[in-house]
Amino acid sequence: MEYIPYGKTGYFNQLVTDFLAEDPQLRPFYTYSPIHPDFAAAIKARQSFNTPRAALVAALEQQYSSLSPVKAVQDNIRLLANDNTFTACTAHQPNIFTGYLYFVYKILQTIKLCTTLKEQYPQHNFVPVYYMGSEDADLDELGSIYLEGRTLTWETSQHGAVGRMQPEGLQKLIDEIQQSVGYAPHGAELIELLRKAYLEHANIQEATLFLVHELFGRYGLVVVVPDSPALKRLYIPVIKDELFHQRSQHLVNDTLQQISAHYKIQANPREINLFYLMDGMRERIVQEGEQWKVLNTRITFTASALEAELEAHPERFSPNVILRGMFQETILPDIAFIGGGGEIAYWLELKSLFAYYKVPYPVLLLRNSFLLIDETAQQRMHKLELAPEALFKSTEDLVNDFVQKHTNASLVLKEEYSAIEKLFDELEAKARSIDITLVATTGSERKKAMKSISKLEHKFLRAEKKKFAWQTDQIRTLKAKLFPAGSLQERKENFIPWYAQEGPAFFDRLLAALTPVSDQFTIVLA
Fold it and tell me: What is the largest CA-CA distance in the chain?
């Protein structure tokens, strides 16, 4: 393995690098250091909060009742009833077939963190949790995967929360996946697992629960599906306060005014940060005078009717990104949340909201990022004399570096530039002695000459590249493979090809490479 600071990869924004560096501009907006977190303080803060453990355990036992029992998971669910048990959590939507490769990284990092915390604090228990964002309605984001150079998209006309959608039509995609990876050593078992998950369950959230349980249950991972009447009931006080007093917008806006002076805002609060959720529908709730309306529908409520609806059907009220994190931290005995750069950005907006409702704000950790380099890619890198960290340069920079390193010609015209500069310095002095108005003309001619030298330099390089056509093509092919569509591998690819090749050992290999608390991007060599 090799490491490179996130800031030197060129793929992470300033907010992420400043967060990891604990820049003073961001430091007021989170509680614990992201690199040297005080987990003991986070545990103490959580102990002072009345986590609804009994209700959480009951909801989880109901949720897992239809799944094959895995002892590690059952033990962890039971442990959640104890006051000395805490969770580390990551969250993600139920993308079909898990979506992006980093979905796996987030879950494994959560698992590794809990193992590490148990070693550091043996008097406590730590349970890894995947919180499923099953109420997200962005099918364009959740309904496709990138596999071996092409995008597979789920064609469906369903609307509303993706987690509640029926998995109709996914048979076709599974058949396409089989054509791609069915021949691999673990391809057949993976395809069978996908068929059971998506073709034998009523909706996407049940399919995702089954799939994640089958893949990660052996590590003791507990999945929480928040689209639950029992769990939503635990959040009624905050939902009611949001509906009738609309505090979150004002609390978050105060923070946004400070953050927006230096960074792009990730999520803007609305007056009411709740959706109304039913099968096939997830629409915003707005207040107009003495009535509350569900946008794009004919549904309206008076104050008394809205309160009655909330008490009878709390599952119909879905928090948006502003209120979702606090719901998660209300129902879980959580001390740490692992998220990507975008998630960290909107969590930084929420600290005052947590403080107002007296919910402990967790340790925020940036998820691990990996570049996976297989043996074939390594062999190609060796032939091209490319170091792993060099791969983060642009393709053309890599090509130019290679040509300039291996050519016998002098492609960088430094001496020529210096000679031109010297000549025009002399000409400018002569022009000044003859007629001051000629200085500007001389300067213009200097720019033309420099531009001509630059054009020649570019042509020299382009001509020399033709001599190294095979090597430069290899560089471009390698770069396209490791950075598909110019993106980080983890933001584009899916876990399927890797798992089909290695099986469960793929997760074990990643787990060994993980550093739960880190400010370094990890390059994993096969």
Answer: 96
